[in-house]
Amino acid sequence: MKKPLVIIILGPPGSGKGTQAKLLVKKFGFEYFGSGDALRNRQKAADFTGKKLIKVMNCGELVPSFVISKLWIDKLEKFGQRTKTNGFVFDGTPRKIIEAKFFDEALIWYELQKKVKFIFINISRKESLHRLIRRRICKKCGRQIPWIGKFKSLKKCDKCGAKLIVRADDEPKAIKKRLEEFKKEVIPVINYYKKQRKLIEINGERSIETIFQDILKAL
Ligand code: AMP
After folding, report:
1. Residue 35 CA: which ligand 1 atom is closest?
2. Which strand (E) or helix (H) includes residue 204?
3. Is 68 in the pocket of ligand 1 (CB under 6 A)?
């Protein structure tokens, strides 16, 4: 049987990783793992880790690698049982070198290491700040409304019609912390894949459609 394609999308906060990942899922029917969504979901368990995740994430800090790795390992295990899948998209993970090394091992363990693409959607710090300060989410369904293109003019959620609010970690102090974390932890991960000549860098400061076409070409 043909091995599924594994796509990892990385980028600074607000770079549009989630938007592009979901477009790939829609076009090809890939399985999806969004690390931010998975952690926000994990918060709901309201156990020790659930409660602590709310505090840590609302401050804009990265969570420990063992917590996020447990979530994608569980997902990979489930994926592994779905033999018909032709691809997986990982959005926003790994974000620390230690997690990247776990991830390398996991891909080998699940026999997925042969067809892997690392995509880095790059935007400047200035653009990241600009977008995050203005970004909104739906109060009811949690849908993220990016500050880009046609989404800027939305007054209500385009999926369920509910009110739009600011995400807890899109407050200025948390945004600053997230950008610091990106520089300190995620840039070394980007360089780790770059050195291995595995990284595909895409300019994220263009329209959603243009970026998506570039990603399709790169795959
Ligand atoms: P995002 O929705 O991608 O902006 O992620 C929201 C938050 O989830 C981040 O600010 C981190 O606190 C946490 N997070 C997401 N992915 C990871 C990861 N791979 N490692 C550590 N923390 C993560």
Report:
1. 16
2. none
3. yes
Output the CA 114–ligand 1 centroid distance in Å.
26
Closest Cα to residue 62, out of 185, 211, 199? 185
pTM of the model: 0.94
Is residue 218 a contact partner of residue 202, using CB atoms and an 8 Å limit?
yes
pLDDT in tens, 50-93: 999 999 999 999 999 999 999 999 999 987 666 678 899 999 99
Task: Looking at 59-202, list the stretches that DSSP marks H as alpha helix, in order from N- to C-terminal side.
Answer: 65-81, 97-109, 125-134, 172-181, 187-195
Contacts 24+ apart (CB under 8 A), 20-25: 20/119, 20/121, 20/208, 20/211, 20/212, 20/215, 21/89, 21/91, 23/208, 23/212, 24/87, 24/89, 24/215, 25/89
Contacts for 203 with CB less than 8 Å, ≥ 6 apart: 122, 211, 214
**Residue listed under structure tokens 């602590």:** 52
pLDDT in tens, 185-202: 999 999 999 999 999 999
